[in-house]
Structures
1.
Amino acid sequence: MIEAVALYFVSEDCGQWANFLKTKLGEKSYDIQVQEIEAANAAECQDSYKANIILASPAFLELPSYDHFCSFPKTQSLVVLLGIEESEYEAILKEKNAEHILGFPLFETEANESSVRCLLVEIIDLYERNVVPEDLLRHFDMDPYDFPPTPIPLSNELQKFIVDDKVN
């Protein structure tokens, strides 16, 4: 699995959105690798990504098949509605027998900075939930800070002192 975000889109509708998201997520503060993939060529992509972001637009709804997208795990996917209504999106996917995609979380954008910020947070959260911790990559070696230390039992002398102190 590639530690990157895959952005699936149709260039004529969402090329600028894909480029914007790739630029933002690739900034030094996030440093997330983004792979842009034309939705029409998605079937040619055999790679698996930590997060699959589908930019759903009017041209996306005209694709002849959604088979490749149906193979994505729901826990690694997010659909961003751009220029289409949720009802229109649902109707066309049902018509084309792509109901599996309807189970993916949806994000409806608005034309404001707050909405874009929320979208970036959603994508980053999805990506981070699916990144395997480095400890697991090192043959399940335990990091000393994964679990708190075992409590040290109080000695009899200390227990007696505490009890005596409370009585007085």
2.
Amino acid sequence: MKNKCIAFAFFVFGIVLFSISKDTLQLPINTVNTEVKVSFYESMEAFRGYEFIGIFLHNIVVGILLSVVGYFTGGFLTSVVLIWNGFLVALVYNMGIYQLPLDSILYASKHAPIEVYAFLMFADFGLQGRFFITKILKHNEIDFSLIPNYRKLLFPTILLIVAAFLETI
């Protein structure tokens, strides 16, 4: 639970970082765009009909970065990814507030709580790597008993499947 709180704090820090820096960013928030917007997946012929798979694969790569790669970097990469994702979430919502009606924003966000919770569970795994790395650096030994069970990644993976499904409907 402590690692999830730490992970959430990094995510919120990314949001705060955006809030502090948004005045210095040159965002086109006051212009109304009349062009028809096409999503990334609609513009890529290879993904036509595979939006669910594309979204899920993207999210699972983020989950692997947060958990496995984050674990072996002592939680450093986990922290960076969480801060960056918090920053991007704040950026997207800030842009959406000025260009979309509230019901569209809420409808597009229906998957967000599940996805964020899944990422926090992946981050919990990744942040445990600080104990593994500390043991290597201080005692010059590798303690394989500190590596968490990979089964901890099963539930957040299922949550990402649900979130990807919700994101595509």
